[in-house]
Write a structure and sequence with these properties.
heterodimer; A: about 400 residues; alpha/beta; Rossmann fold; seven-stranded mixed beta sheet; six-stranded mixed beta sheet; globular; B: about 300 residues; eight-stranded mixed beta sheet; 8 strands
Chain lengths: ~400, ~300
């Protein structure tokens, strides 16, 4: 059934349809609508879940670690500072191999206080062992949240479904909400291999000396590698039941392209519009949307863009002392193949600044004009900045 | 006197605690009283080590080891999972040290207690960060040497009163217990088992290593803590009804302090000051118990 709803409600609808059993959360703008919808579903009996309204994001994740270890399907949602506060337990949930699912609404980190979209919060968590899936529109948010449970419970790793603040969380769009029967077909109930059981007492997460720890980490790595392959199967199944698929990456008009944009999140939609416009001007331009950030789909990226001359990576995030984070990952993916595109890294839209079609067109012409990047990080649209640094 | 201790053991031999470890004795009595339908949440503390490394376990109940500050929150999650699965019989227990309770786990504990989570939260109190090498916690008593309060920098701030803080949350049951009074401890665990909501047990668990006492003194020191009024045995129901379970012999505090290496720097004048503090706390507790006729 099609309904016009917010990205936040698309998440909540997926959580309801997934029959999540324990939800725990702490409010932070712009995640709040998600947990408000779920609270209402629990209060009115639309969902039969325990909702624990805890005193911090750290405790929200801790609650889910307990609940998932005791064998039930779990969900939380957060943003920015909240995600940063959870950091320790993100490692914990992944290391404990718990299939926790989280909707993470990308918001800039303080200071200065800023509630608008920026990917640095989720990308800062890249080494925690969480699968990360970035969404472009509210339909993708709903579908990806459903897929997240299936993936998490199959490979025993937690999944972060990532959506842009406001552009997705608070924007109303038409979304097709699947029937419960369809979702039940796609997503069976959760039966973990191991769980806390008084009849079969086991110890979880205990002390692991050097002789065993490394293999545990290697197992996590293997599970991540399996995820790349498994994601395709989950999408096949989802497509069979619900008629939609997205891909870990999506290549748009890349076959004959000389220059491609590489994007993630909502800027992808703006970019689709821009490449249509540029194609009308007979520019050989394409687009590669990256949905899956962890595991990073290295092989797919190599396959799809190795014949391209230049790649312009759009990063709404930054790693200080290095560069935009998607640009880093793309460069690392390409460096060991002999013929590969020159990678231009563009930093745009931090703290929710608009990335308009004009900004992307400028980036295109800039990329076309230069054989190689003038610098590894091209910050776009900066106003007058005082570059003077106190000499030390 | 007939013992109320169960014959059955839910703790295997071969744990990795130090000789005379009070935390180990506390667990053994506690599980005897609670039985096997128990799930144990253990945040970082001595018991992280005592329970044994992978793939061994000292306990015959399921354990989830968890991050230092998460004991009460993880237990809330385990409880929620059991509830949604319809298991109301299994008791969920957080078993945390004083650091994980008084300090780093305090926020999550207050959160869980405010929600009146249906768990038993046990703080086995050895009055410092013993697992990391005897650093001071907010449970370390006035006067104590620790590795972070060395020499003349011995702790000059009183121990945090965790019992009063828990009682102020108005939870159904808050009680102290001691490894030197196993019958009392077992009685309280059995009572707590049948109460719904948050139950908080503060168990005094001596630490020969950190307190610098011979291991065979472990129980004796714990008994003296009660007999000197330093650690009174009492319970608080619904945050207001106080019952003192043991009327002490009012021994002087120096009997408790003098055998312990961690207090050896204290002068007679220091002990006088401490005696005054102990007396004041005891009078206050007596008044509260008298208010609700809870003096035995």
């Amino acid at each position: 059934m099609k309904r016009v709803l917010e990205g936040s409600q698309a998440v909540a609808e997926a959580v309801r349809l997934a029959k999540v059993q324990v939800v725990s959360a702490y409010p932070i703008t712009p995640q709040t609508h998600i947990v408000e919808y779920i609270s209402e579903y629990c209060a009115t009996g639309k969902m039969e879940a325990k909702f624990l309204r805890v005193e911090s994001e750290h405790s929200a994740m801790a609650v889910l670690i307990g609940a998932a270890t005791a064998g039930v399907r779990t969900f939380t949602s957060t943003s920015s500072q909240g995600l940063a506060l959870m950091h320790e337990l993100l490692h914990w949930a992944a290391g404990a191999r718990l299939p926790v699912v989280m909707a993470e609404v990308n918001r800039a980190l303080a200071p200065a206080w800023n509630v608008w979209t920026d990917q640095t919060d989720s990308l800062s968590q890249r080494d925690t062992g969480w699968i990360q899936l970035y969404c472009e529109d509210s339909q993708e948010v709903l579908d990806t949240t459903l897929q997240a449970f299936r993936i998490a419970e199959s490979v025993n790793l937690p999944v972060m479904v990532v959506l842009d603040a406001f552009y997705l969380s608070h924007t109303y769009e038409s979304v097709d909400i699947p029937d419960q029967e369809e979702v039940d077909q796609f997503l069976p109930s959760f039966h973990p291999k191991f769980q806390m059981d008084a009849k079969n007492p086991c110890a979880f997460n205990q002390l692991a000396p050097p002789g065993v720890y490394m293999e545990m980490r290697y197992n996590m790595h293997s599970a991540m590698e399996q995820t790349l392959n498994y994601f395709g199967k989950v999408e096949d199944e989802f497509n069979r039941v619900l008629g939609r698929r997205y891909g870990a990456v999506e290549a748009v008009q890349c076959e004959d392209a000389e220059i491609i944009f590489i994007t993630s999140g909502t800027v992808t939609s703006t970019c689709r519009y821009v490449i249509e416009k540029l194609r009308k001007q007979e520019e050989k331009v394409g687009l590669l949307k990256i949905k899956m950030f962890r595991p990073f789909p290295v092989d797919a990226i190599r396959r799809l863009i190795s014949s391209v001359k230049k790649a312009a990576v759009i990063d709404r995030n930054f790693s200080f002392g290095a560069s935009g984070i998607f640009a880093q990952e793309v460069r690392a993916s390409l460096c060991n193949i002999p013929q590969h595109p020159v990678v231009f890294g563009y930093v745009v839209g931090l703290g929710g600044r608009d990335i308009t079609p004009e900004v992307l067109e400028d980036i295109y012409w800039h990329t076309k004009k230069n054989e190689i990047p003038e610098q590894e990080n091209q910050w776009i649209g900066l106003r007058e900045v005082d570059h003077e640094i106190e000499s030390c | 006197m007939k013992s109320n201790l169960a014959e059955s053991e839910l703790m295997y031999s071969g744990h990795t605690g130090c000789p005379g470890c009070g935390a180990t004795i506390a667990m053994r009595f506690f599980l005897k009283a609670l039985g096997h339908e128990t799930m144990m949440v253990i945040p970082a503390c001595c018991w992280t080590v005592i329970a044994g490394p992978y793939p061994q376990s000292t306990l015959q109940v399921p354990i989830i080891h968890t991050a230092f500050e998460t004991g009460a929150a993880v237990a809330s999650g385990v409880r929620a999972a059991l509830d949604i699965k319809g298991d109301t019989k299994t008791t969920v227990v957080t078993w945390a040290g004083d650091g994980g309770t008084f300090d780093i786990g305090f926020q999550a504990l207050s959160g869980a207690v405010e929600r009146n989570e249906d768990i038993i939260y046990v703080c086995y109190d050895n009055e410092a960060y013993m697992n990391t090498g005897v650093q001071r916690s907010s449970s370390t008593p006035y006067g104590a040497w620790t590795s972070t309060t060395p020499g003349n920098a011995w702790k000059k701030i009183a121990k945090k009163n965790i019992m009063e803080i828990m009682a102020a949350h108005r939870i159904p049951y808050t009680a102290t217990a001691s490894i030197a009074f196993p019958e009392d401890l077992v009685k309280k665990v059995e009572k707590a088992k049948h109460i719904k909501g948050t139950r908080f047990l503060h168990i005094f668990a001596s630490c020969p290593t950190g307190w610098q006492i011979p291991s065979e003194m472990s129980i004796k020191i714990a008994r003296l803590a009660v007999q000197t009024n330093i650690f009174p045995l009492y319970e608080v129901e619904d945050g207001v009804r106080y019952t003192i379970n043991y009327m002490p012999k009012r021994y002087l505090v120096n009997e408790y302090f003098r055998p312990q290496g961690r207090f050896k720097h204290l002068t007679d004048e220091d002990l006088q000051v401490i005696q005054g503090m102990v007396n004041e706390n005891w009078e206050l507790l007596l008044r509260k118990a008298n208010n609700t006729k809870g003096v035995i």
